[in-house]
Specification:
The chain contains 15 helices and 13 strands. It is an alpha/beta fold. The strands form 4 sheets. It has a 5-stranded parallel sheet, with helices on both faces. Strands 10-11-13-12 form a 4-stranded antiparallel sheet. A hairpin with a 5-residue loop joins strand 10 and strand 11. Helix 3 packs parallel to helix 4, helix 8 crosses helix 9 and helix 10 packs across helix 11. The radius of gyration is 25 Å and the shape is globular. The chain starts with 25 loop residues before the first helix and ends in an 11-residue tail after the last helix. About 11% of the residues have low confidence.
């Protein structure tokens, strides 16, 4: 409809997983590297997770297209099958004839014979299962048993499980511990940040034939990123809808006005906000940066101390009131935090919102309802991920730049740092930072105490 009007040769924002349009963000490159490592090193099980629409399927198809002719693949898109149908699908996708084979044993025998033939020819066999979080436990166990087909020198079949974050919870089931122990490579694909969203849109336009003219203004990109949470599939749909509106109204450039109109029309696309303790989903910090508490309507001053300035005093715990307060007039969350904690920063406000799910806008607190004001102690910052591993919640911050200092902190080198987007008002998003990769809870506690003593955790830092 709009291709000729915008000088394009094809639709730039189609949602089908076309490898030609793959935009390799830093996280996509890392995911791709994990996949290629798993294939080249013949790892038995690989797990890649990410929110729906983050590009997992496009990534896997790109990887498969890059494999040499000595790699045989089976790609299962709909894992809701019975065991015989599951085995039959794998066989047929590998090019095996299954006529006359009716039992599980017959299908396994045929598959095993084929795998041995591939091993003799020095060919690899890879099974990719999309939407693996929907696999029933019984079928996941069958997948594990397939990797038991091996020789003394290695596995006859490699398995890649692709799924949404819920896959981690599925795999943490005690009944699947033997499968979980066999997972050699894991990666969680995070959504795009604001800068990457702009690059992603420009990339797809170039592939579709754009000569470089600016079609989407920065304001439109920012609005689409905030609304989509950085999910590429949602970005595609928004951009496509905006181009339709732009063409219909003879607008060569998509500005903020068109973006807002598109978002209103497609409000049903808004992704769900991740929970407080999610890692992964979330878009899950700041070293030497203080947020000084202020009175009134709760604007925040960000102070950057120099190296000569001693670390700020550490608050051991922010104490809650004896009884839950009841707000009698419209106030914002900052005023409430200042009144009860004596300190205001995004971390404190985020914790308050997590304990009071009926508060969806930090600028307005519902009246005549009890407000939970919890004591903010160390326990608030420890959690366990879907795999039972400890992680730390480091804080919530106004922008991504503030996170970089903690990312580079020596105590967190080698840890898995993740950011999660947090919507705190209709036009404001903050970033939560979590750190994983700790071997034990004691290791996490040591890092937490040290960061706290250095005054680097905003929840425990207060101005004199």
């Amino acid at each position: 409809m709009y291709k000729e009007y915008y000088g394009l040769s094809e639709d730039p924002f189609q949602i089908s997983p076309d490898p030609r349009f793959l935009y390799l963000s830093d996280q996509h490159r890392a995911a791709y590297a994990h996949l290629m490592y798993a294939i080249n090193e013949s790892k038995g099980f690989t797990v890649v997770t990410g929110e729906a629409g983050t590009g997992k399927t496009t990534l896997i198809q790109t990887m498969l297209a890059q494999l040499d002719g000595r790699t045989r693949t089976a790609h299962l898109y709909n894992p809701k099958l019975t065991t015989p149908d599951f085995l039959r699908y794998i066989c047929e996708d590998l090019g095996l004839k299954t006529e006359g084979l009716t039992t599980k044993g017959e299908l396994l025998t045929r598959l095993h014979r084929f795998l041995m033939e591939c091993y003799t020819r020095k060919e690899r066999v890879v099974l990719v299962i999309d939407e693996a979080q929907t696999l029933p436990h019984k079928l996941l166990e069958e997948v594990r048993l397939l990797t038991n087909l091996e020789t003394p020198s290695g596995k006859l079949m490699q398995v890649i499980l692709m799924g949404q974050p819920e896959l981690g919870k599925v795999l943490s089931d005690e009944r699947l511990r033997q499968l979980t122990q066999r997972i050699s490579v894991r990666y969680h694909l995070e959504p795009l940040n604001l800068e990457q969203t702009g690059e992603y849109i420009d990339h797809r336009l170039r592939i579709a034939g754009s000569k470089g003219e600016r079609i989407f203004e920065p304001e439109a990109v920012r609005l689409f990123w905030k609304f989509s949470g950085g999910i590429p599939r949602v970005i595609n749909t928004l951009c496509d809808g905006a181009l339709v509106i732009g063409h219909a109204t003879s607008r060569k450039v998509i500005d903020g006005q068109i973006a807002r109109e598109t978002i209103r029309d497609m409000s049903y696309l808004r992704p769900k906000t991740g929970s407080f303790v999610r890692r992964p989903a979330f878009l899950y910090a700041v070293s030497g940066i203080l947020f000084a508490g202020i009175l009134g309507l709760g604007a925040f001053l960000v102070l950057k101390p120099s190296a000569a300035v001693p670390p700020p005093p550490v608050v051991q715990a922010l104490v809650a009131p004896a009884t839950p307060p009841i707000v009698k007039k419209n106030i914002n969350l900052a005023s409430l935090a200042q009144r009860h904690y004596g300190v205001v920063n995004p971390t404190v406000l985020d914790i308050l919102m997590q304990h009071n799910r009926h508060i969806t806008d930090m600028h307005r607190v519902p009246t005549d309802e009890p407000i939970i004001v919890p004591p903010i102690t160390d326990k608030e910052f420890f959690g366990t991920d879907d795999d039972g591993k400890p992680y730390l919640y480091l804080g919530t911050f106004e922008d991504e730049k503030s996170i970089q200092a903690l990312r580079n902190h020596p105590l967190l080198r080698g840890k898995t740092l993740k950011t999660a987007l947090r919507e705190v008002s209709i036009d404001t998003h903050w970033y939560r930072l979590t750190a994983g990769g700790f071997k034990t809870k004691r290791d996490a506690e040591k890092v937490f105490r040290s960061l706290k003593e250095q005054g680097l955790l905003p929840a425990f830092s207060a101005s004199p």
